[in-house]
Amino acid sequence: MSRSLDVLAACEAFVAVADRESFTAGALAAGISQSVASRRIGALEAHLGGRLFDRTSRRVALTALGRGVLPSATRLVGAAADLVDDARRSRSRPLSVGVPPSVPPLVLAELCAAGAAGRLPLAPVAGNPAERAEAFRSGRTSLFLENVPSDRARWTARLGVGSHPDDDATGTFHLGELRPARGRPTGALRRLWLQPEDDVPHVRDRMERARDEAGLAPVQVRVAESTVRALSEILVSDDLVLCTRPEASTYDLRWRPLGDQQLVRAYAVGAADESLAARFVALCSSAVVTVLGADDASGRATQTGLEPVRG
C-alpha cells in the first residue's frame, strides 16, 4: 500500500461518483472539487491495479473491477461514518458515578448540574461501599466515591450519633451511655446502629474496638442491613444511629458529636483514568461536599438545604 494514499478519502470519492454516475455530482456530494475527486480515484486505481471507471463514454460507468470493489468500498465508508457517530454518542453519554445511597434527589441533581455545566454529563448510581466498588470493578461505573482511610481522603464527614427527635440528651456522646441502667431488662440493651455506608474497616473496626473497651455486649454496636432498619429501631426505642450531622437533619433526628474519639467518613475518587478523575473533581468537588455531607474548609459540616438539625 502506498504510504501517501488515504484509502478512506479515496473510497469516499469513488463511492460518491459511482452512486451518482457523475464526477461533477459525486465531487459535490463528497464536498470536494472535481479535480480532487479525479486525483483521489486515480490514486486508488493505481493502488488496486486497474481502472474503476470507463471514461470512454459520456456517462461515467463502472468497470468490472469497479463493480467488484464497490461493495467493499461502500462498507468502508459506512463503517467510518458509524465510527464518527459512535464517538459522538459516546462523548454525550452520561458518565456513571457511584454514590452513597440515601442522598436526596435534589442533592444528586445539583451534582449532575455541576457536571453538565462543564460538559461532563453524569449519571449517579447509588450503592453501599461494597456495591460501589464492585460496580466499578465490573465496568458498570466509570468513577465512584470510594470509602478510604482518612489519610487518603479528599473529603471527610464527621460522624456522631442521631437519636429520636424527642431525646433530650445534650453534649458529646460516649459509648458508656449504652451500659444498661440498674434494673433495666437484660433483653432491652440499648444499641448503636451503623449504617451500611459505615460498614468499612476504618469505621466499623474502630467502633467495635471502642465497644469492647467500654465493656459493652457485641450486639450493642452492630451494622444494620439498611438505613431504614436503623431508623425504624430509633423510632420505637432509645437506640442510636451513627451518622453525619446533615444526615441527622435529613432524618429529623437529634445529633450529638462523639466524645470517645474523632471518627469520620472519608472519601476519594476511585477511577482508572486519572485525567477523568481530575476533571470530575475540578467541576464537581463543591457538589460532592454536599452529596457526602462533608466538612468544609473550616471543619464545619455542610447542610443539604433541609431543616436545621435538632439539638
UniProtKB/TrEMBL annotation:
Report the GO terms under cellular component: protein-DNA complex
> GO molecular-function annotation terms?
DNA binding; DNA-binding transcription factor activity
Domain of life from the UniProt record: Bacteria
Q: Where is the HTH lysR-type domain?
A: 6-63
Tell whether Oxidoreductase is among the UniProt keywords.
Answer: no
Matching SUPFAM superfamilies, A to Z? Answer: Winged helix' DNA-binding domain (SSF46785)
Q: Does the keyword DNA-binding apply?
A: yes
- Alphabetical UniProt keywords: DNA-binding, Transcription, Transcription regulation
PANTHER family found in the cross-reference section: HTH-TYPE TRANSCRIPTIONAL REGULATOR CYNR, TRANSCRIPTIONAL DUAL REGULATOR HCAR-RELATED
Family recorded in the similarity comment: Belongs to the LysR transcriptional regulatory family.
> What's the protein name?
HTH-type transcriptional regulator GltC
> What species was this sequence derived from?
Oerskovia enterophila
